[in-house]
């Protein structure tokens, strides 16, 4: 999620836009000015930190001459794969090193991509083409590595892509970390108390990706929701609301005490709960 939205809304008010602010895809979705390939030292550091795994660079040719670059981290003893979809502006190199090392504790394979327009992947991102790319990535993962089980794990903005992905594509489990219910609920939690009359105009594309709608009406497979008690970007109350809305028979909720938006997986209890969740699938 974009942690600067409160400042954006206040700025809009101060600039005499009246009592409304306009939120656009282009302004919200972080976009790099140029492509930056994975650093060799980064790949070597990741491989050295995971001596029981094999780290492979992968590339998919998407539409509009887009090349999607990522990593497949192979645990030779696993036939379960976690497909991790990052948050807004989060690159594989260098931003995902810590999360990859943490997720490796699950003992699964891991697949991760730089999304369109960020890091090593070129193009211009929109909500629509991020979903198209995720479908293509999931298809590639299944065809190439043929895992027995695929867990789609979406973090922050990535949770919206993950939810839309499992809405229409088969997945063995869904993990939603730092996730809002929908854009309207999220914006309502970000408007300061001293701006009660401010309204935010959002594009229709944002309203179409509704996590609460997916878990309440479409997805009924295993679900794990991870929130953080001190999250100032996506309040834990939205994670709780998602969990309560879910119709899944196998579901788990963990609100990590004293953690902020980026610290949820740092807790040993979180990772233990994650392993227990995978064992139930």
From TrEMBL:
InterPro entries named in the record: AB_hydrolase_fold, Hydrolase_4
Annotated keywords: Signal
Gene3D superfamilies registered for this protein in UniProt: alpha/beta hydrolase (3.40.50.1820)
Domain Serine aminopeptidase S33 per the UniProt entry, residue ranges: 101-224
Signal sequence residues: 1-21
Pfam families: Hydrolase_4 (PF12146)
Matches recorded under PANTHER family: ALPHA/BETA HYDROLASE DOMAIN-CONTAINING PROTEIN, PROTEIN ABHD13
Protein name: Serine aminopeptidase S33 domain-containing protein
Organism from which the protein derives: Shewanella denitrificans (strain OS217 / ATCC BAA-1090 / DSM 15013)
Source taxonomy: Bacteria, Pseudomonadati, Pseudomonadota, Gammaproteobacteria, Alteromonadales
